[in-house]
Amino acid sequence: MANVNLEHLAGRRVCSESGKTIGYLEEIIAEQDGDELVVTEFHVGIFAAFERLSASTVGTALLDVFGLRRREGLYRIPWDKLDISDPARPRLLCSDDELSGFEGADRRK
């Protein structure tokens, strides 16, 4: 198991296996596991940043006004599907075909 400084990942461009840019890493989701935080998924794409706004009433209203509360362009990528061994160049460990399965699905408990 490797330790990676999250500040080195946030905002980085994420590429698919084929080298195509799918978006920027906007949010890193982690859960408490004893005394540690363990990353469970990464949120990538143009609407991942807007997703954070939707946690508030004001944010939700803003997204609705501009028609941005949608799930296309937001990828929730499981922790084991993103190679972060080089934090400057995170890349998917799955095919572009599998990527559509991560689009917009809400996996939070």
What is the distance, rounded to the nearest whole angstrom, between the alpha carbons of the first and last residues?
25 Å
Enumerate the strands of the largest sheet in spatial order, edge to edge or round the barrel: 1-2-3-4
Q: Determine the fraction of residues in helical runs and give it as a percent range.
A: 10-25%
pLDDT < 50 stretches: none
Helix count from the secondary structure assignment: 3
| Rg from alpha-carbon coordinates | 14 Å
Q: What best-fitting shape do the alpha-carbon axes yield?
A: globular
Describe, in plain words, how this protein is organized in 3D:
- The chain is α+β, with helices and mostly antiparallel strands and 109 residues long.
- It is 17% helix and 30% strand.
- The chain has 3 helices and 6 strands.
- The chain has helices spanning 48-53, 57-65, 96-99; strands spanning 13-15, 21-33, 36-44, 75-78, 82-83, 91-92.
- The radius of gyration is 14 Å and the shape is globular.
- The two termini are 25 Å apart.
Can you describe this structure in just a few lines?
This protein has 109 residues and is an alpha+beta fold. It has three helices and six strands; from the N terminus they run βββααβββα.
Structure keywords:
single chain, 17% helix, four-stranded antiparallel sheet, 109 residues, globular, two-stranded antiparallel sheet, 30% strand, alpha+beta
